[in-house]
Amino acid sequence: MLRITGGYLAGRTISSLPGENTRPPLTRVRESVANILRPYIEEAVVLDLFAGTGSFSFELLSRGAQFAVLIDKSPKAVQVLRKNAAKLDVEDMVEIIRADALQMIDRFKRAGNRFDIIIVAPPYFTGLDQETMTRLGSGELLSPGGIVLLQQSRKETFNEKYGDLILKKTYRYGETRISTYILDE
User: In the structure, what pLDDT confidence band is assigned to residue 26 with cuts at 50, 70 and 90?
Assistant: First the structure.
């Protein structure tokens, strides 16, 4: 069980996925990410790619985000996401989509969707981190003043620039690296 660390849902628990294919972020990483994103959260629309348990999105909704779109291609992950949304009574604040994150990026671009916070937390060492950031590099999905958050292993490669997205800051928590990107003005 994972516990929401702050906001109006603080202390409530959400379910995790069984097995080792999904690794929910550690409590201190989730709490730190919420603190890093604090200036962007109020009334934000969040896109959570590779959502897994949804712990990042539920943390942000608890702290004032308006809505979250959670994408995961795993049927088990989608089942857990729906269960967690119901358990927290936030079904009206989320859209849960079972789909490939990269395909959804392209679909959202075509539809003209924009998000205030985009979370990229793919499975480690799959190359999905680089491919996703490259696709997001046009900046088309990011609202003006928005932010992209990338979670990786410290051993994975990251760039200071992906198209129109430039590195704002990097943080390290044990083996986890969190990098934030904003649109290059």
Answer: low
Residue type, 68: A
CA gap 56, 71 in Å, rounded: 12
Question: Domains in the chain, ordered, with CATH?
Answer: 2-183 (3.40.50.150)
Residue 113 burial (C-beta neighbours within 10 Å; 0-12, 13-18, 19+)? middle
Cα–Cα distance measured from residue 47 to residue 119, given in angstroms and rounded to the nearest whole number: 6
> CA-CA distance, 141 to 7, in Å (whole number)?
27
pLDDT tens string 131-184: 999 999 999 999 999 999 999 999 999 899 999 999 999 999 989 999 999 998
Nearest alpha carbon to residue 142 among 103, 112, 176: 112
